[in-house]
Every structure is written in structure tokens, then in C-alpha cells.
Amino acid sequence: MEQINPAELQQIKDDVSQLTRDFIQLTNIIGHEELGNTATDLLQHINDPYLFVIVGEVKAGKSSFINALLETEKDICKVAPSPMTDTIQQILYGAHESEIIINNYLKKLYYPLDILKEICIVDTPGTNTIIEHHQEITERFVPAADLIVFVFEAKNPYRESAWQFFDYINSEWWKKVIFVLQQKDLLDDADLQINKKEVEEYARKKGLTDPQVFCVSAKIEQSESKTKSGFPDLRKYIDTHILNGKTPVLKQQNNLSTLLNMSGKVKGGLILRRDQYDADVAFRDDIKDTLTQQETKSAKQVDFLVENLIAEYENVTRPKIGEIRDGLGFFSMVGRSFGSTFGMKSSPRDWLKNLFEDLEKDLNTRLKNKLNDGVIDIADSIQQMGKLVDLKLRNSRTILRDDHEIFSDIAERRANVLKELQYSFSSFLNDSKNFYDHDLTRSSDSISPNLAAAGGITAVGVILATITNGMIFDITGGVLTTAGLLFAGVSIGFKRRKIMKEFKEEIDRGREKFNSKVSENLKQYITKIKERIDRNFSRFDRHLEKEGTDIIRFEKEIETLDQHIDALNARLSS
User: For residues 499 and 505, is the Cβ–Cβ distance under 8 A?
Assistant: First the structure.
């Protein structure tokens, strides 16, 4: 690895800092405080030396290991038979020895050691510590760490809490890790090699392709022959892979890797969020398609019903037209006139009155029966429209869960919108007022008791019957009233041809009026119910609109961030 000139390195540090600030701003927008805090911690450590974080269980010999590694005559880290490290200690280079207390859990120790010009060391409490906050604070150092050193007791490197912490580091942060079996002087070489091989195999099973395991003894290093302590091999590895001018570049590469890791977490969440959005859009489109299909189906049923009603209208009016035509003949009218004089026959006026009463009765009875039968099918179709939507709503697909690492708040917001929609739609279906149409039923005063008895969507049949029955009386009554006026003052039949022509024309107009009004009003009613059902989704639609906009924005920002990270990595690798 070639060394990079100071000016170029500083520019890269500035660029990494800016990218990190951009990411922090993104976490603020998406509302993820924890990830934002992690990025803020990273920003604060960007200019620090290469960071070693020493982890392991209590009494694993971490403090002794650090003292031996630093080759100082003074014990920087306290060592005792009982656990001594009650705070996290960050060991850095300083021209003079000093100590700064940051808070109750963290302090910084400064020493004039040459190695600390390239690296700094964080000494942590045990992974199995029972002191509150220690695990949490230790984990906060992990994202900014450049090397994690796992220290195990050489005689027992199988402690569960240490390996659980390794799983957290390896799966969450992809950090470079080495393993140290400390206190190798406490067991013979054969057992030591067995434990070393076991650690290597265990690490491979957990995903490391080339685990580095070093067996050391701080006791031997500090009191006996250093060649047997194991530290020379460890120092050689550190010199070869980390020190000798490589740390500035490695540090920024690790910073970019950490930033890319955090970006990946957001990106992974965005993929799920996009999947949920796409599923919700498909669900919403399915609702619209279902409503349109049911509207079309109901409209066809209206067309079929109207055809039957017109045929019945013809069946009733055709014979009456013939009867009137025959009855208006010259001799028939004369006979009725003379017959009525002597009380033998009804007068022409009474005859016409009776004929019209029969016609009205037949039209209303036969059309009403036809209408009521047809309305049942239409009502079933409208009810099916509501029930299908309700079923689809209850079975909507949830992909983004409310326990998601990044977007739990979005998942919860969606869940609340959906829950409110399900509740409000259920209430909508149970309220008969939502299916009542004042414009179509204003002439009827008898509908309210029926609605109260039926309730909700089951009232549709009652409403439709009321609407259509009102139409029958409206149309047929209007036709017969107008037609009746044609016969007012009918005399002996000199105007028979003209009267019959106008009468048939009025009957035809009534048929067309019946056709258009029944069809138009029923289809208008169906469309209104469809629109009312669809309006229940207004808040869900606003949620989808905002989600679509936000997702596109976040995807673009993450893509731009990743491109800049790749570009900086390329500069560092050139």
C-alpha cells in the first residue's frame, strides 16, 4: 500500500466528514435517532488514530495484555485478581501523561508512547459485566473501531457472552477481528494448540474465512523470555498489516466501510419499504379494479332488468291500445252513448276511466313485481362490492413490520392508517345512511322504518326497491295522466285517428322515459355507492402519496452517498 501525501489525505478526511454529515442529516429526516448517534460518533473519531478495541470477558487478562503490548514499564491498565476495569479507558498519545474523565463510564488516558502516535486503544469492561451501561457504551465504540481484538482465557476460549458479542460485531458491522488466547502459560502446549484450532474452526463456522489467532502470555512477556511470550508474532502481524505508515489510509478505508455499512442498513430497510409500498399500491389498484368490475356487473344487471321491464310494459300496453282503438270506433261510441242513456252501458267517459284504471293497475302491479325480482340481483351485486372490499382490506399484506431496525415508525404509521381504515370501513358498511340517496328517494316517506329494520349494507335491497317503485308510480302515473287528457271531451269518434296516434306516441314516450330514467337512476345510484366506498381510502391514499415521494427521495440520496463512498475508496486504493 502506497502512502498518500498529507494534503490529499486531509482532503479525503474532509470528504469523509462531509459524507458522514450528509448521512446524519438523512437519519434526521427518516427519524432514526440511534443510527444518527452512531454516525455522529463516527464523525467524532474520523481524525483519531487507528483504533484498537479490546474486548473479552472479565478476568480474561485484557488489562495485562494491553500493558504487555505497549511495552511500557508502568502498568497503564490496572491488574488485580478481581475485575478492575470499571470504566472504559481510551488510551491515546500525549506529550505528557494525563488523565481526563469524560463521564462516569469513560475516561481518556494520555501517554508519550511512540506506538500511540499511530494507534489508540480502548480497554473495555468484560462482555459479561453486570455494571449498567457498560455493554451499551462498549457497543458504541464498535462502529468507529478499526480492529477488534478478542481476548480469551487460553484455557477456556468458549465463553458464551464473548462469542455473542462477536456475533453482534461480525453480523452488524463487518469489523476486522483478531483473536488472542491470553495466559497461555497456564496450560501445556498440546492443550493450547487444541484450543487454538477450536477457535479457528469456530470462527470459520461463524463466517470468517481466514481467522487470525495468537497465543500469548503477558506474564512471560513482562518477566521472562520475550521470544516465548507469543507477542513477537502478534507484533509482526500488526507491523505488517497496520503500522509503518499504513494507518492513515486504513483508518479512512475503515471509516468509509462503516459509513457504507450504515448506508446498507438504510438501503436494506428501503428495499422492504419499497416492497411494502408496491404491495400497497397493488392492493389499492385491486380495490379500484374490484369496485369498477362490480360497478360494470351491476350496470349490466340494470340493462337486463330494464329490458325485461320494457318487455312487460309492451305486454301490458299493447292489448290496451287495441282495446281503446276498437272502443273508439263510430258505432262503438254511438252504442255506448245511447246505451248509457238508457242505463244499459257505461258512458264513453266511464268506459275510458275504467280502462285507464285497469291499465294503471296492471302496469304498476306487473312492473313492480318484475322490478322487485330484478332489484334483488342488483342489490346482491352492490352488497358484494362492499363485502369484497372489506375482505381484501382485512387480508392486506404486511411486509414492513413495526419492529424493523430502521423504519419501525413508518411501519407503525402504516399499521395505524390501515387499522383506522378497517374500523371506519366496517362502520361505513353497518350504517344504512351511507347507502341512502336523498336525490332518488326524496318522494318516499316510507323508507326510514325499513332502513332502521335492515341496517347497513343489508338495506341496499330496501333502498333499491323504494327507488324503483317510486319511479314506476312516477312514470306510469305521468304517462296515463297525460294520455288521459287526450280523451277529455271525446265525442263520437270523429278524431279517432288523431287521438290514437297521439295516444300511441304518449305510450312510446312513456316507454322511453321509463327506459332512460330507470337505467339512469339505478346506474347513478350504483356509481355513487362505488364512490362512497372508495372515499373511505382517502387517508390511505395520502399515506401512499407521501410514501412514494419519500422513498424516491431516500433512494436517490442513498445511491448518491454510495457513489461518493466508492469514489473515495477508489482514491484511497489508487
Answer: no
Q: Are 52 and 250 in contact (CB under 8 A)?
A: no
The CA-CA-CA angle for residues 527, 372, 425, to 5°, reads 40
CA distance 83 to 90: 18
pLDDT above 90 covers a percentage of the chain that reads: 46
Q: State the DSSP string of 435-454.
A: G--HHHHTT-SSHHHHHHHH
Work out the burial of residue 229: count CB atoms within 10 Å of its CB; fewer than 13 is exposed, 13-18 middle, 19 or more buried: buried
Report the 3 state secondary structure along 376-410.
Answer: HHHHHHHHHHHHHHHHHHHCCCCCCCCCCCCCHHH
- State how far the Cα of 250 lies from the Cα of 245, in Å rounded to an integer: 10
Phi then psi dihedrals of residue 371, to 5 deg: -65, -45
- SS3 (DSSP) at 56: coil
Dihedrals φ, ψ of 284, to 5°?
Answer: -65, -40
Reduced to 3 states (helix: H, G, I; strand: E, B; else coil), residue 574 is coil
Domain ranges in the chain are 48-245, 269-562
Per-residue three-class SS string for 104-164: CCEEEEEECCHHHHCEEEEECCCCCCCCCCHHHHHHHHCCCCCEEEEEEECCECCCHHHHH
Average pLDDT, whole number, for the chain?
82
The answer to whether the beta carbons of residues 537 and 421 sit under 8 Å apart is yes
pLDDT, tens digit, for every residue of 219-262?
Answer: 999 886 778 899 999 999 999 999 988 999 999 999 999 999 99
The CATH class that applies to domain 48-245 reads alpha beta
CB within 8 A of 129, min separation 6: which ones? 58, 83, 135
DSSP code of residue 229: S
Residue with cell 322504518: 449
Q: Which one, of 64, 58, 57, lies nearest residue 219 by Cα?
A: 64
Q: Please write the tens of the pLDDT for every residue from 47-95.
A: 889 999 998 887 778 888 999 999 876 777 765 444 444 678 899 999 9
Residue position matching grid coordinates 458464551: 160
518 or 26, higher pLDDT = 26
Contact 421, 393 (CB under 8 A): yes
Are 294 and 523 in contact by the 8 Å Cβ rule? The answer is no
What does the block give as the cell for 67? 500493558
pLDDT digits (tens, 9 = 90+) for 425-466: 999 988 878 887 666 554 444 444 454 455 677 667 666 766
CA pair distance 490, 328, nearest whole angstrom: 9
Q: How high is the pLDDT of residue 446?
A: 44
**Closest CA relative to residue 94, chosen from 75, 76, 78, 116:** 116
